[in-house]
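Let's inspect one such protein example.
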Amino acid sequence: MKRILLPTDFSENAYNAISYAVQLFIDVECEFYILHAYTPASISAGSMIDSHSAMTLHEIEKESANRNLKKTQDRLEKEYHNANHTFITMASFNLLIPEMKEVIEENDIDLVIMGTKGATGLKEVFIGTHTMYAIKKMKCPVIAVPSGFKYEKPREVLFPTDYKVSKSNKYLPLIRELCDEHNSRLHILNAYYNTPLEDKQKDVEAFLDTYFIDNAHLFHISEGQELIEAIETFEMKHKVNFLIMIHNRHTLFENLLFKPIINQMVYHTNVPFLVIPSQERMNR
């Protein structure tokens, strides 16, 4: 049984990510936790209101959230009726990221799937604030689904790596499972900067070759290109429709995500993006 957390703000963008999730795991027994976290506007803005008014606002928001969660669940069951899937709806008076942390811990969540912020004036915005901070703060894999991305099987999967992956990372099996379920071809890409691989990196390369022995997989080297450019070029050439990265600390990847203006790699990546926390991040 796989347990998947699906945060929602009841937008079509959020529903699109939920729709992607149920199709991605169509043949897998899953519990989907559909979460809406809310804070009434007057309370979150710090307005001076009496306790009775605060309680009234809270009840209104709670009723509205539960009503919309029921609509979401009914829509899913109508469009994607699947005996493998169970939906659990959750409305919480809390900020989203702290609530997600609690839900992940209390329910032993395996994976978070959420939509990216839609392009509202700035097409560069691929990963919205909530998704970005979920990736940064959660010790759990996150799949970010681009706004408007229509489901397609992840047949061509790109996994850029510097071969500094921990062999004991407990989420590596997730990559293998996804490839198994969708008969995917895994492309393992290393951007070469005129520096030979160290022995430890060569060891990890050999480990990955053995680890994915039952999956179609290919190793690629991109020479003379920065990582961002290498990923973009590869995606276009091989029609990649799923991207995977390990989120290490103090690496280029963290800089990519958390610059004030989202970097070229991110806003040109218009395919679902699985981010797996490194072993180091999980041990913090």
